[in-house]
Design a protein that fits this description.
By secondary structure, the chain is α/β, with parallel strands linked by helices. It is built from 11 helices and 8 strands. The protein has an 8-stranded mixed sheet, with helices on both faces. Helix 4 runs antiparallel to helix 8.
């Protein structure tokens, strides 16, 4: 089981795909693990070396005994780049993973090629919302939250048409360590990068879902407007666009990355 240590926490990762391709790092959302990328993975693996990992507190990665910030999540990615001996990589993050990608764009430009910010915001939700979420999980655990999350992550039409997939995603969310989930809720409660995203230099793709209640298109348009070089794509999905609209998501990412081949430093 490939792991590395970052800030005292074990991180589980998988490195797959084209060994001669450029490196693409995928950063998962709150409450998921690296399998949230399963439906787009084949399209990426045919062209790129793909590094997926479980955020600290999620999946097979360890749980931090201390509180941490978005900076630590960003430094986890940098540690993974060092682990696989990669000087630079493109990074695609969704939701919390997108906030991590924003932090990297601001603070580690020399390690990056291109960026993809999916279904995310420079400030997700409000402090009050996250405090309420933290209290709910402390009181009821992950199982009730997993069912409620499906309603935010997928449109009603998609949920109705894909019951087996919904059970797969529900089980993934329910299996998340509550302490890890709560720690990352606190990260999102405190993270606000709105005043800093103008510093991002990497060519960027901003992906959103028309029906996303968690990070609506207005959040994506705010990121798009604040970046120096970006393209905006809106998909007919809810929050987990990399799953609900996997083909369109993968095509947009591949097109974005291909545009930089041979031109990015």
């Amino acid at each position: 089981m490939p792991t590395t240590e970052s800030g005292g926490v074990r991180l589980y990762y998988e490195l797959t795909g084209n060994p001669r391709g450029a490196l693409l790092v995928l950063v998962n959302s709150l409450g998921s693990n690296l399998h949230m990328w399963d439906k787009v993975l084949p399209a990426f693996e045919s062209r790129y070396r793909v590094l997926r990992f479980d955020l600290r507190g999620h999946g097979k990665s360890g749980v931090s005994p201390q509180a941490f910030t978005i900076e630590q999540l960003g430094r986890d990615v940098l540690q993974l780049l060092d682990e696989v001996k990669a000087d630079r990589a493109s990074v695609c993050g969704l939701s919390l993973g997108g906030v991590v990608a924003l932090w990297l764009g601001i603070h580690a430009p020399g390690r990056l090629q291109r960026l993809i910010f999916a279904n995310t915001a420079a400030r997700i939700g409000s402090q009050e919302m996250w405090e309420q979420r933290i209290a709910t999980v402390r009181n009821t655990g992950m199982s009730p939250l997993a069912l409620a999350t499906l309603e935010r992550w997928f449109t009603a039409t998609y949920r109705a048409g894909h019951p087996e997939e919904m059970e797969q995603i529900r089980a993934m969310i329910a299996a998340t360590d509550p302490d890890g989930y709560l720690a990352c809720c606190a990260v999102l409660r405190d993270a606000d990068l709105r005043a800093q995203i103008g510093a991002i230099e990497a060519a960027s793709l901003v992906i959103t879902g028309t029906h996303d209640p968690a990070t609506p298109p207005s959040d994506a348009r705010e990121i798009h407007a604040g970046l120096r070089t970006s393209r905006y794509v809106e998909l007919n999905s809810s929050h987990l666009s990399a799953w609900e609209c996997a083909d369109e998501f993968a095509a947009a990412v591949v097109q974005h990355l291909a545009a930089g081949e041979g031109t990015d430093g």
